[in-house]
Amino acid sequence: MHFLHSMAFTELTDLDLWLQAKQDKGVAFKTLFDRYWEKLYVYAFNRLKSEADAQDIVQEVMISLWSRRATLDIETSLAAYLHTAVQYEVLNHFSRTARMADRSMEYEQTILPELNSYTAPLHLKELATMAANEITRLPEKMQQVYRLRQEKNLSVKEISGLLNISEQTVRNQLNASYQKLKKHLKEAILLAIFLQGN
C-alpha cells in the first residue's frame, strides 16, 4: 500500500509536490529530492571535481529548501530555483576555499553550530545526540584528536605534543572529522525529513 502511495507521488508535477512539501509531507519532498538529486550533483561535481563536496552542497541546498518551506515562495520553476541555489553554493565553496588558504586554523570550529540552521525538522537536543553517536563511529585516532580538541579544548600544538604527531597531521585529522560528521549528520537530517508527515 505504501509502495503504491509513493508511486502516485512520482506522477505529480513539481508544483504539486512542492505544495505538499510545504504541508510537511516528507514523501513529497523525497520525491522532489530523487527527481533533482542527480542533475544537481553532476552540475556541482563538474565544477568542484570532488564527489564529497558536490554531495555536501546538494544536501545542504535540499535541507535548506525544507527548513524554509513554510515561508519560501518560488517565483521561477523549482528546477531553476534549485540550479541557482547549487550554483550559488558552488561559488561560496570556492570563496571559502580561498579564505582557508589564508587561515590555517579554519578547522577550529565545532560541528553543531554549523548545523544549527538545519534544525527545523529536529530539536537541537536530538541533533546533539546524533552528533555524539556519529563521533563514536569516527576512526580511533581521528576520534581521539577530535575529542581532545572539542571536549578537552586543547590547542593544535598541545594535541600534537600529547600524541607525538605533527601539527599539520592534527589539522588534517580535525578537518577530516568535521567533514565526516557533517556528511553523516546531513544524511540523518534528510532521512528524518523524508519520514516526516508520511
TrEMBL record:
Pfam families associated with the record: Sigma70_r2 (PF04542), Sigma70_r4_2 (PF08281)
SUPFAM superfamilies: Sigma2 domain of RNA polymerase sigma factors, Sigma3 and sigma4 domains of RNA polymerase sigma factors
Record-linked Gene3D superfamilies: 1.10.1740.10, Winged helix-like DNA-binding domain superfamily/Winged helix DNA-binding domain (1.10.10.10)
All copies of domain RNA polymerase sigma-70 region, residue ranges: 32-99
Keywords in alphabetical order: Sigma factor, Transcription, Transcription regulation
Residue runs in coiled coils: none
RNA polymerase sigma factor 70 region 4 type domain: residues covered: 135-181
InterPro entries in UniProt: RNA_pol_sigma-70-like, RNA_pol_sigma-70_dom, RNA_pol_sigma70_r2, RNA_pol_sigma70_r4_t2, RNA_pol_sigma_r2, RNA_pol_sigma_r3/r4-like, WH-like_DNA-bd_sf
Superkingdom of origin organism: Bacteria
Keyword Transmembrane tagged: no
Family as reported in the entry's similarity comment: Belongs to the sigma-70 factor family. ECF subfamily.
The protein, known as: Sigma-70 family RNA polymerase sigma factor
Species name: Chitinophaga qingshengii
